[in-house]
Amino acid sequence: VVTATTVGGTETLTNATATTNASGVATFSGLTLTGVSGNYTLRFTAPGLAAVEAQSRILTGPASPQPNQLSVQTPPPATATSGVALSTQPVVQLQDSTGTPVSQAGVVVTATTVGGTETLTNATATTNASGVATFSGLTVTGSGGYYTLRFTAPGLRSVDVNAFTYNLIGPASQLSVTTPPPATATSGVALSTAPVVQLLDAGNNGVPQAGVVVTATTVGGTETLTNATATTNASGVATFSGLTLTGPGGYYTLRFSAPGLRNAETNSFTYNLIGPASRLSLTTQPPATATSGVALTTQPVVQLLDAGNASNGVSMAGVVVTAITVSATGTLTSATATTNASGVATFSGLTLTGAGGTYTLRFTAPGLVSVTASTATVLTP
One digit per residue, pLDDT tens: the chain, 381 residues? Predict the structure, then answer.
C-alpha cells in the first residue's frame, strides 16, 4: 500500500492510498488535495521502503465569485419629505450574475433619481466585508412628485427601485381646510366646531411641518376674531381652539393664511353669524278670540332675534318677556315668560280680563325692540 502525503503542508488529501498490482505498480485514482492556494510537494511512502517525492506543484483554490450587479435589499419608504432624511435608509447588496450575494468590501454605491432634477445628499455608501452598502442620512430635496431611485457602482449593472417608486413631499406651499367651521355661530361664543387646517405642497400632499402659525380672518368683514391663530404640529396640522367671532348677525367667510403660503377660504362653508339679541318675534300668535278671565286657548311664544337676519334665532336664556295691551284697559295675568337656552319664551296661563271688545297684545323685553301681535283678539265678557 502506497500512501500520498504533502511535505510540510496542511492540505487535506482524499483517495490518498493505492495498492500495487502484480507488476508492483500502484496507480492512484481520485487523489484530491483541498487547501489554500500555493506550492506543495507530494511524498509517497510504503512501509519499509524509501519514500519518493514528486516535483513541487501549485495548488489553485476555488475561484472567488465576482460582483456583476446590485440588488436592493431594503427599499426606500413609500413617501418622503423634501429635505428630510428618508425614514427607512436603503440597503444594497452586491451579487454575481446568478443573483448570489458576493462578499466584497470597498465598493462605492451611488444613489440618483431617474430623470429627475432633485438634489440628493448623503448619496453614497460603501460595501462592507459582506458586500452590503447601507445608506445613512440619504435625503432627497425637490418639488413634490413621484420619483424612482437608481443605485449604481462602477462596472456593475445598476438597479432601480421601480417597485418602490415613491412620493416626494415638497415644501409647504398652500393651506387646506380639512375641518370647516360650523354652518352657524353665535357672536361672542366659541365656534362649536374648531376649524382644522393642513399644510400642503404643490402636489396637494400633506406636509409634516411643525411651527407654522396660521391666522384666521374674515373676508371683507368688520367683526372681531379672538383665538384667531393656531400653530401646526409635527404633522403640519393647525387646530383652532376657542376661535370666536364677535359682530352683528350676517353671513361671513373665513380665510386662513400663513406667511409665504397660499390662503385657504371656507367658500363652501360660508356661515351665518348670529349676533346679540336685538328684538322680539312672535312665533305663535295669540288667538283671535278670548274669554275674559280665562287663559288664552293658544298661549303666545316669543323668539329672540338678532339685528342681522329675521331667521336667526338667538340662543340666550333668562330674558324676561312681558305681555301688555296696546291702548286698552284690560288686565293681564301670568303676563311674563322667560326665555330658555334657545332664546324662546313660552307663555303659560296668560289671561286677559276686561270689558268686551278688541284688544291687541304687545310683547316687550328690556333693551330689545318689542313685537306686536299681527291680529287683534276679540274679548268676550
Answer: 999 998 877 778 899 999 999 999 999 999 988 876 667 889 999 999 999 988 766 655 555 678 999 999 999 988 888 888 999 999 999 999 889 999 999 999 999 988 778 899 999 999 999 999 999 999 998 876 778 899 999 999 999 986 445 567 778 999 999 999 988 888 888 999 999 999 998 878 889 899 999 999 998 777 899 999 999 999 999 999 999 988 776 778 899 999 999 999 886 445 567 778 889 999 999 999 999 999 999 999 999 998 766 556 777 899 999 999 997 788 999 999 999 988 999 999 999 999 889 999 999 999 999 999 998 888 898
Phi-psi map region of 130: left, alpha, beta (phi>0 left; psi -120 to 50 alpha): alpha
Assess contact for 303 and 353: CB atoms under 8 A: no
Contact 136, 89 (CB under 8 A): yes
| Look-up of cell digits 316669543 | 302
Burial class (CB in 10 A: 0-12, 13-18, 19+), 181: buried
